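Example 3.
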Amino acid sequence: MGETDMENSKIFLKHFQKQLPFQVFVWLGIVFLIIFSYIPMFGIIIAFKNYKIVTGIEGIFTSTWAGLTHFKQLINDYNFPNLVRNTLVLSLLKIIFSYPVPILFAILLSEVRHTFVKRFVQTVSYLPHFVSWVVVTGISFAFFSSNFGVVNDMLLSLNIIDKPMQILTDPDSFWGLAVTTAIWKEAGWWTIIFLAALAGIDPALYEAAEIDGAGRLKRILYITLPGLKSAAIVVLILNIGGMLGGGLVGSNFEQSMLLGNTMNSETSQIIQTYAFNVGLAQGRFSFATAIDLMQSIISVILIFTSNAIAKRVSGTGLF
Amino acid sequence: MRRRKTVEDWIIDSIVYIVLTIVVIAAAYPFYYILLITFNAGTDSLTGGMYLWPREFTLSNYAYFIEDTKWIKSFGVSIVRTIVGTFLGVVFTAMVAYGLSKKDLIFKRIYFVIVVVAMNFSGGLIAYYIVLRSLGFINTFGVYVIPGMLNLFFLLIAISFFSDIPEELGESARIDGASELKIFVKILLPVSMPLLATMCLFIGSGQWNAWLDSAYFVQNESLRTLTYRMMQVINQTMTPSSEAQIAAASRSSVTPFSIQATAMVVSIIPILGVYPFLQKYFVSGMMLGSVKG
């Protein structure tokens, strides 16, 4: 027995030595992940501690325990109900309003016969995806500002409104602004997935339907739509998984940071931005981490709840 | 078989073309409008009513942008971080992927678990900041290019890409005694152009568009990026009426708003420049991602 073990480990060593360069490549990546992913993950425990930034990484382990103090503080924080509401409402509104857009857009594109027109429309509609949220904010500013924005300017000169709308600062308009800009930026991009699904539909189906006398609308309803079903489910799953981040159409965090301001913070401040501000501006790192953790907990609850609902309604869950 | 257009065809075609026209205008006009602002006297733009072409044509916004060392410097920082960050990100991600794509790699399973866990869980921004700070990354150029060097999304895509390349490809070089690193650089990377182009586009545009790290992880003014400066102007002009005051004080037609628009155009141009060429790659890259993801 002992001898074969020795043999085995010798073979193993030789084999290992042979692929050593590959192992080294992987190790470099693993070391990287430990530093930039795993240490921050363990860093979550400072939510239960009295952490001080001067103690560095070491302090994560050596600082004294605080129990649930920070969580109690968070729940009693007068901002807390607002933060949870804003995060949930913004995320839900985005899914509801942005989810159908790429699907409808893909159907429209599939009805275009001229390849050039199709490509042109696609190219133009992808473009906003590649610019930063800062640029999108600048554009929102140029369009919705109350003193020189195009939209106010036009509506005023057409006498539709008699005083400029405070779109950028009014708390009541932040959610609409966020959802609209998110759709503007990302909806064109996400049609790629649906167009690929459409490309997979057998053209013979359309020909057969046409011969059988099905009109355009019937072909859309009975061939194109069913052809999009599986892609639509995949995208819905991805959307729900990343819901609190803003789903696929983009970042709640960046929008809240850039389009949010002191005037509309009542509706624009979300859990993540609050944590960020409290942590970095006020230096309350343990408290901020507790907020981050709270968001993860809500997120997990949401995923499991929606999964349970999906199972009950359609018979198949997401996992 | 070409049949005559029915009433239904007419209706559907009209709806399709009307909606698509609206979509194209909605997507493109905002960019055009910003461009318009940059070629018009800043003080004049504030009076409104300009929609299609410049009213008081001027190049003073661009002249101001080029002469202002703050803007030009931050433009330079953005360029350098994009080039260095994209290079490091693409090469490092591809290298780790190459290691993980080896067929009979020992401990492969453990490595994958480590990657997948890191992909799905994070410690949040605060804990991440603590680590960056403790390692001395805060206030350095390194914070732009090093912490994001391993892109996990593209790691998985690259692994599946490399796994499809036959291992015999590097065999003759291996027999000649070339090192694995050399084989990776000289043989594997050249045949992976579609993958590398896709990665360059996405990692590059991510680098170019990043603003959070410049705003919160760096205080040194000479390290600020273009996107950060744009953000700063947006925050300043948030308070109404300051626009005209600043312009009046500086005795020029340039306003913070018109200079911000100029910066936006400058920041969009590089994207416009590369994106039509890479479009065929990113569509396939996106497909790869959506199928695997």
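Chain A touches chain B through 94 residues (CB under 8 Å). Chain A has a mean pLDDT of 87.
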